[in-house]
Fold:
Amino acid sequence: QSALTQPASVSGSPGQSITISCTGTSSDIGGYNYVSWYQQHPGKAPKLMIYEVTNRPSGVSNRFSGSKSGNTASLSISGLQAEDEADYYCTSYASSNIWVFGGGTYLTVL
Amino acid sequence: EVQLVESGGGLVQPGGSLRLSCAASGFTFSSHWMTWVRQAPGEGLEWVANINQDGSKKNYVDSVKGRFTISRDNAKNSLYLQMNSLGVEDTALYYCARDLAGVGALDIWGQGTMVTVSS
Structure:
């Protein structure tokens, strides 16, 4: 049950696009289309941004999109805004009916 | 308003026990898988356990198996986490969350309840 691998930090300027990667194995990301992404601002509860790899919940901006290739999932954010600065976590279903999170990526909007 | 409210956290000595509760409102509680997620101070999120709609299926991360028990009371719209044999490594903010469609999409979260294990 190893955590998924995310970069510790990424950054971009307002209006730019960024991508956050989340790497797992064939036993989690590569084996199932149950990848979700969460945004967490300091002192706040996480917020669901993407589920089932590509689906956006109602109310989430279409600037956020998800994808997957092999054992790596990605979250892309276009048109960066100051309020996008936050921690981002990926999660995936893994074998044996458990779920595993990534270590988190802090997005800095320069 | 759709809402989850956790309670029951606090300071406990190593080896002690705590029971966390999560009160749900504003949605049909009995229709959803429910999950506990924790976050140690300054650290990332960790999936802890989940339970299906009628409580017949329960899953746990290895580090809490045999020590923690997840349960629910649909008549009371409540989720629980019984935590025994607590260690310092269990110190964290514990969140309950609703699974949107049983696919690990945690769309509603509580504000969390803090558990501190210390002598």
Summary: The interface with chain B takes residues 1, 3, 34, 36, 38, 40, 45-48, 51-52, 55, 57, 87, 89, 91-93, 96-104 of chain A (CB under 8 Å). The first strand of chain A starts at residue 9 and ends at 12. Chain A has no helices and nine strands. Chain A has a mean pLDDT of 96.
